[in-house]
Design brief:
The protein is about 40% helix and about 15% strand. Helix 3 packs parallel to helix 5 and helix 7 packs across helix 8. It has about 350 residues and is an alpha/beta fold. The chain has 2 domains: about 190 residues, Isopropylmalate Dehydrogenase (3-Layer(aba) Sandwich), CATH 3.40.718; about 140 residues, Isopropylmalate Dehydrogenase (3-Layer(aba) Sandwich). A 12-stranded mixed beta sheet has the order 3-4-2-1-5-12-11-6-7-10-8-9, sandwiched between helices. The mean pLDDT is about 90. It has 12 helices and 12 strands. A hairpin with a 2-residue loop joins strand 6 and strand 7. Its EC number is 1.1.1.262. Keywords: Metal-binding, NAD, Oxidoreductase. This is 4-hydroxythreonine-4-phosphate dehydrogenase PdxA. It comes from Promicromonospora vindobonensis.
C-alpha cells in the first residue's frame, strides 16, 4: 500500500518550528513507515535548527518536487520556498519570518491543490509577525480556508480519541456571539457527523456546549441556546446525526475529559481552547475539518523565549504528523460533506 505524502511547513523560522521539525524527522524514524514527510520552508533556517539540536546540517537535502523525496531515515527533504531566511534573528519578531511563514503555507496549499501532497502539517507561525510581513490573516486556519476557497470549516482540537470542534475561533467574543447562527451551527454539526463517519464511528454521540452559563437555564441567562442551538441539534438528529445539547459547558467538557464524550462542539475559542490546553498540553493537535485535504497543526505557539536553544519539545508535531497520516486516506468523505453543506447554505441564502 502507498503511504501519504505530507507537506510540513516550517512555520516562523524565528521560533521553534525549525527545531521541532528537525527533532521530529531526525529522531523518529518510525514516522517513515506511515508517511513521506516533505518540508516546505527554508534551507538555511533548517540547517541552523539541525545544528542547534545536535545534528549534522548535511542531513538537509533540497529537492525540486515532492515526487523527488526518497523518504530516507536521517535525511530531511526540503522544498526551498522564496529567498533565504538564514539570517533572520532567532527569538525576535520579524516581518521577514512572518512573510516566510505565509509563503510556506501558500506553497503547501498549491502542492495539495495540484495533487502533489496528501496532507499539510503546520508547525507554529506568529500572527503578529505575519501581519508585519503584510499578510493580515487571523491565523493558519483562516489562511488555509482562503487558499482552498472554502467557507464551511471548523478548527478541531484533538487528543487521542477526543475532538473539540468550534463554532467560532479567532474573533472577539462579541463577534463570536453574532457569528453563531442557525446556518453555522448546522454546518458544524454536519462536519462533525461526517468526521465521525470518516473515523468509522457514524453513530458517535456529539455534544454541543451551550453558549451561555447553564446553557441559558431556560432563558434566564440568554436566548441563544433555546433559539439557535437547540433547534439545530434537533434538526441534526433528524438528518441521522447523533447530536445532543446544548449542554452546560461546565458539565460537558469535564465529562469529555473523563471519557464520556469523544466529540464536543464548543461555541467560541476560549470555551474549547482553555480547558483543552490546560488538560492536554503537548498531547494535543489542531485539525482543520472542511478543507479538501487534511491539515493538522501543533497546538502551541512559536515560543520565542526558548527558540534556538534546542530544548523545544517535538511531541505535538510528532502527533500531528501521525494524525495527518492516519486521516489522509479517508478524508474525501469529510470534504464532500463540507461541500454539500456549503451548497445548501448558498441555496438557502439565495432563496
Amino acid at each position: 500500500m502507498s503511504i501519504p505524502t505530507l507537506a510540513i511547513t516550517l512555520g516562523d523560522v524565528a521560533g521553534i518550528g525549525p527545531e521541532i521539525t528537525a527533532k521530529a524527522l531526525l529522531g523518529h524514524d518510525e514516522l517513515r513507515a506511515r508517511c513521506v514527510p516533505v518540508v516546505v520552508g527554508d534551507e538555511g533556517a533548517m540547517r541552523r535548527a539541525v545544528s542547534a539540536t545536535g545534528g549534522d546540517p548535511a542531513a538537509v537535502r533540497v529537492i525540486d518536487t515532492p515526487a523527488d523525496a526518497a523518504n530516507t531515515p536521517g535525511v530531511i527533504e526540503l522544498l526551498q520556498t522564496g529567498p533565504s531566511l538564514a539570517d533572520v534573528p532567532i527569538g525576535e519578531l520579524s516581518a521577514a519570518a512572518g512573510d516566510g511563514a505565509y509563503r510556506f503555507v501558500v506553497e503547501a496549499c498549491r502542492l495539495a491543490r495540484d495533487g502533489q501532497v496528501d496532507a499539510i502539517v503546520t508547525p507554529p507561525l506568529n500572527k503578529a509577525a505575519m501581519h508585519a510581513g503584510g499578510h493580515k490573516w487571523p491565523g493558519h486556519t483562516e489562511l488555509l480556508a482562503h487558499e482552498f476557497g472554502v467557507e464551511n470549516f471548523s478548527l478541531v482540537l484533538s487528543a487521542g480519541d477526543l475532538y473539540f470542534f468550534h463554532l467560532t475561533t479567532h474573533v472577539s467574543l462579541r463577534q463570536a456571539i453574532e457569528n453563531i447562527t442557525p446556518e453555522r451551527t448546522r454546518n458544524v454539526l454536519d462536519l462533525a457527523g461526517a468526521f465521525t463517519a470518516a473515523l468509522g464511528r457514524p453513530d458517535e454521540a456529539i455534544g454541543l456546549a451551550g453558549l451561555n452559563p447553564h446553557a441559558g437555564e431556560n432563558r434566564l441567562f440568554g436566548d441563544e441556546d433555546a433559539d439557535i442551538l437547540a433547534p439545530a441539534v434537533e434538526a441534526a438528529r433528524g438528518r441521522g446525526i447523533n447530536a445532543h445539547g446544548p449542554l452546560p459547558a461546565d458539565a460537558l467538557i469535564p465529562a469529555a475529559v473523563k471519557g464520556k464524550w469523544n466529540m464536543v462542539i464548543a461555541c467560541y475559542h476560549d470555551q474549547g481552547h482553555a480547558p483543552f490546553k490546560a488538560v492536554y498540553g503537548d498531547d494535543g493537535v489542531n485539525i482543520t475539518v472542511g478543507l479538501p485535504v487534511v491539515r493538522v497543526s501543533v497546538d502551541h505557539g512559536t515560543a520565542f523565549d526558548i527558540a534556538g536553544q534546542g530544548i523545544a519539545r517535538e511531541a505535538s508535531l510528532v502527533l500531528a504528523i501521525e494524525r495527518a497520516a492516519e486521516l489522509a486516506p479517508g478524508w474525501d468523505h469529510v470534504w464532500q460533506t463540507a461541500q454539500k453543506t456549503a451548497q445548501q447554505t448558498s441555496q438557502q441564502t439565495a432563496s
